[in-house]
Sequence to fold (1054 residues):
Amino acid sequence: MTLWRRRTLLQTAAGALTGGTLAGGTGFAGRAAAAETEQVAAAHRFRIWMVTFRGWTATDQGFKSYLERRRIPVELVHRDVDGKRERLAEIVAEIRAQRPDLVYSWGTTVTLGLLGRHDDADRSAYLNEVPVIFLNVTDPVASRIVPNLAPTGRNIAGSTFVAPVSAQLQAMRGYRPVTRIAAIFNPKESNAVGMVRDMAALAETQGVTLVSHPVPVEEGATRPASASIAEVVEGIKADRAEFVYVPPDSFLSSHSDDLVAAAIPFKLPIFAAAEGAFDAAGTLMGLFARYFNIGQLGGYQAERILLEGAAPGTMAIESLQRYSLVISMNTARKLDLYPPVLLCRNAEFA
Amino acid sequence: MTTPATTIPATTQTPTLPPAAAAGADDLARRSLARRSRYFQVTFFVVVVALLLAAAAAAAYTMLAPFDRELTPALEEKAEALGRSIAGQLGRLLEAGNPLDRLEGMTPFLADAIQDKPDILYVEIGIAEGRPLYRVGQVAEAGIDRVRVPIMVAGTTAAQVELGIDPAYLTTQKLAVGVDLLIVLLVAAIAAFELLLLAGTLLLVRPLGTIDAVLEQAAQGDLSFRLPMFPQGGGRRVAKAWNTLVRSLAETWQSLRIEAAMVRRTLGDDAAARLDVRLTAVTAAARLGDPDQPKTFNRLFLHAVRAPVFLFMLAEEMSRSFLPLYVRSLYRPVEGWSDSFVIGLPITLFMLAIVVTTPIAGRLADRYGLRRVFILGVAPLVIGYLGTALASGFWDLLVWRMFSGVGYAALYIAGQGYIADSSEPGKRTRSMALFMGAVFAAVVAGPALGGILADQIGPRGTFAVSAASALASLMLMLWLLADQPRERPAEISPRLRLRDVAGLLANPGFAGLTFLAAVPGKIALAGFLFYLAPLYLAKLGSSSSETGRILMVYGAATLLLTPLVAQLSDRLRMPAVLVACGGLISGLGMLAVQLRADSGGVLLAVLFLGIGHAASIAPQLALVPGLCRTQISALGTTTVLAVYRLIERMGSVIGPMLAAALVDAWGFRGAVTGIGVLTATSAMVFAILVLGPIGLNRKAGGSP
Fold:
């Protein structure tokens, strides 16, 4: 049973990775499922609270679409904090009062706000009884959400979504010879910092220098100002790096337009390690799991917990097996830097 | 003396020619006749086989034409599919906005696309009537078949892919098919030759030979032999006429004796004495048979055993090119076991079955007769092949191969025994050559034929053909070896005692010969030719037919060179030198795999192994008597040779195991080299011993 479901999921994921037909397919399945769902009495629905950081994303859509396709009767309650982590405390209180069947936690910041660190002594401010699945968390171990990727034993399951740094570096080197990489990131985001650190360590073993360019954060502020991105990019230009590396970073994801607007005049090739940071108008390439597929994986985990009664604590932190290599031919033309044909065999064009 | 002897019934004169002079002239005439008849036989077979080959080659040539017609479009279709794949990938890029003249990394991309495609000479991308923008491969020449595929972007042709098909590839493929056909023809010719020999034996050689022998007896004065009933057309009328003559002679003689007794009673002593003198003269001139007890002249005929031996040997040799691969396909890895070792097990156990069965089969033959051992031996052989064809896995395959080994040993021993029994004393070497002729014919034809069959109908089907071949061998035996009693049984199975074996091994000459020449020879044969070569060639990408063709070279080299070496050996009278040289040639030859990493290296190694074995194997046997005079006088030649054979065969048993260990350590090339070095080193040590302490080439004989 489980195996069969998993295969269905993987097929869906594979379909999403290889073709652009996803929207049509989902639309049809979605409509059919919606009609079905309406027939089920509200009392018999599973209640899922979806907590997101910066609005409804493709991940959330992937999650929702999976549940619909599998005709799982759910009532989805969406809470978005609009990038403000301070709002999470009241959501925790709300969830405790409502006691839903499952909580969907989007991203590192939200998950830390809902669950805290695994080694926090005082857990009173966090969810402990309600099952939680986390998605879009770059590195749950480095962010200390879990001690390792083994089953947690707690009421938590989840998935990681970033391609291994070795695969990322290999993709960059497949595009053009690389000796120097400039990394831009929000120093306040632990996931971004951790990934840049990993990339720097790996790059060094391959004779590649990584130069860090954290976007400055003013005293007392919780995050950088978008206006300072342009200054950082100007600083990067002097590095003569072959690639500008953008890790999974919520700040840069929401300001990708600022980043590419600053980078294009200097003809800087940008590599994105998360779909949110990829902007076809100016990002050259990216290697990441599609948000939609991450949502589908979350949906599969939710199904196991809701329908099969699997305890979240017995489930390993999973990851997708396939990542999308995306190249923007539009950007390549602007930079006059076209991709090697061999690399394009496995690439999607954006 | 022929004329007087045949005229005995008409007159009762005493012979007039002096016996000695007559015999001399007669002998000379007979010898020249024999030479002429052999010359005729050889010419006859050469002409027949040449005609057969020519006719078949002509047929094959006409068959190649349609092959040509079909292969060319097939190649074009393949190239077009490749072109479409390239066009599709590039079209996607162009559609995404990559300009045609700015495609990056095209050289590795195109090189990757035509890699491992020997039929594609070059690939180029360009616009219809212009210089190509990107190009990989050789320069286009006239006479090249070109295939063009458009690169479509948004429904219009943006560029085109052009692929050049190598005309030489077509030739190579045609050549490969042609060689396959030629080998089939060669095999057919060998089979036809064996059939002709069989028909000739039954219709010509046996009747003429028997008539010749009976007339020879008559010439010596013995008129008591009758001729057997030959097949229709094969001298049956002569036999009838002769038998009538012999019977009437015998009856006439009998009535004459009765008449004489009557006369003696009625006439006086003087007349009786004169009559007795006359009668005694007749008795002195000719021995006439007893009409009530007819004696039919019957003799075992060597050639009768040739066809069955050829067929059962062919059955085994057919699997040479693919057996290890078949084993590997059935084998599921077992933890803690080396794969190479396990894949060699079927060969090793087959050889072990031969070692164990050989003495038993010999003893059975001594007790129950060769024909029964022959016929009983076919059963395990056929069961073994059928089982191998239907094997469900590795472990039952092992059992089936051992069945085949038991049958193989029984048949081989029975065949040898038959030759020993039916050959006249002093002509045994020539008779054995006849037996070996059938064996070599199978060694040449088998691997190549089996390789082609395996490519066409698979290994299982080929083993089924082997089973059929073994059954056909049985049919022929039942027909040909019928009612031929073992009149003069030769001892083929001496009892081996451990003490004798130990005594022989204490003889340094014998030990040196077996361990430095015989055993390494068998290790090379079973380890390299039977085990390593098929696996290594498969790894190099050879098909079963190609492997079969290469392995066939071993048989061809031994077949062609063995008679030459025999002459050389007779002239040189230094068999030990030949043994050492043969070992060196085969050992150093195997190092050819270091010079060439392709199948050509293996081919050279196989060729040199064939040359080396042709040079050394017969001289090895020839050395034994000289080396072991003391032991031979005590135990007899047969026992000493049996011990020699037994130890030699252990080389076949350990060969595949040793090769497997070497493969695990050094890979295929290293393993072949290792066996080559082992063989060459043994030969060198043997050579040193020959020149030094043992002095084998002085034919001094061994002193323990």
Remarks:
- Chain A has two domains: 2-161+290-319, 165-288+325-349.
